[in-house]
Design brief:
Helix content: 40-55%
Structural class: alpha/beta
CATH superfamily: Glycerol-3-phosphate (1)-acyltransferase
InterPro entries: Plipid/glycerol_acylTrfase
CATH architecture: 3-Layer(aba) Sandwich
GO molecular function, one term: 1-acylglycerol-3-phosphate O-acyltransferase activity
Keywords: Acyltransferase, Lipid biosynthesis, Lipid metabolism, Membrane, Transferase, Transmembrane, Transmembrane helix
Number of domains: 1
Largest sheet: 8 strands, mixed
Organism: Aggregatimonas sangjinii
Shape: globular
Number of helices: 7
Protein name: 1-acyl-sn-glycerol-3-phosphate acyltransferase
């Protein structure tokens, strides 16, 4: 019965989701080209709030804990586990004061209204996972950027999303580069639960009635031992993942 109800709700959700992306694409262009970074950032934040509201049509609710305790006068490297694309909008909206920028695969940089534009122009970097030299250069560029402007980088060290919520082993090369290029940054572990349930039936229909939780843990300094800091981050993130098959 629950899956049957998910079909019509998913259709309604996709209509509103797609309409939101189409509406905000020209708004982003206008903000970026006429008013600059600050205006564009506000438009992107509002767009992601609207995307969260769209997901309420699926009965989705959110809990984002402890973000208010993060400093705004230091660069941050935000390190969450990855369960679905539904991890993205909550991070952008609830952590908007920290200007989150993403390490994303290059395929997302084209063809998706609003999303691709923001990734190309909003400060995020697009990496080719088949070209390690290009990926290293782009991630390094992001590290320098957040160090200079006291902003935040978001990297998912698992590499790909977990389909059942179970954490995957961290791949730390990208994280290591960010730490090197942003030596004053704090590592911020984030444990995400239940986002995978949005895709529990596959790509369609969406899962309904889920409460997605984002637990922001205490920041960790990378000095004097970045390797130990990365090990601690992984342990903290995994300790907060409790909902999986």
């Amino acid at each position: 019965m629950r899956k049957l109800l998910a079909y019509p709700l998913s259709v309604i959700y996709l209509i509103f989701f797609g309409a939101t992306l189409l509406v905000f694409h020209p708004l982003q262009w206008l903000a970026f080209n006429l008013f600059g970074y600050s205006a564009h950032k506000k438009i992107v934040a509002i767009m992601n709030l609207c995307l969260l509201r769209c997901s309420h049509l699926l009965g989705t609710t959110y809990s984002f804990k402890n973000v208010e305790n993060l400093p705004t006068d230091k660069p941050l490297i935000i390190v969450p586990n990855h369960q679905s694309l539904h991890d993205i909008s909550p991070i952008i909206w609830f952590m908007r004061k920290h200007h989150p920028k993403f390490v994303s695969k290059k395929e997302l940089g084209r063809g998706i209204p609003s999303v691709s534009y923001n990734l190309r122009h909003g400060g995020s970097v697009l990496i080719d996972r088949k070209d390690s030299k290009q990926a290293i250069a782009e991630i390094g560029k992001l590290g320098k950027y957040i160090e200079k402007y006291n902003r935040s980088a978001v990297i998912f060290p698992e590499g790909t999303r977990s389909r059942d919520g179970r954490p995957k082993e961290f791949k730390t090369n990208g994280l290591r580069i960010l730490i090197k290029r942003a030596p004053s940054a704090l590592l911020v572990p984030v444990s995400i639960n239940n986002s995978w349930k949005m895709l529990r039936y596959g790509k369609f229909p969406y899962g309904i009635g889920n409460r997605l939780t984002f637990d922001v843990h205490a920041p960790i300094t990378t000095n004097p031992d970045p390797e130990q800091a990365m090990a601690v981050v992984e342990k903290v993130v995994v300790s907060g993942i409790t909902e999986f098959k």
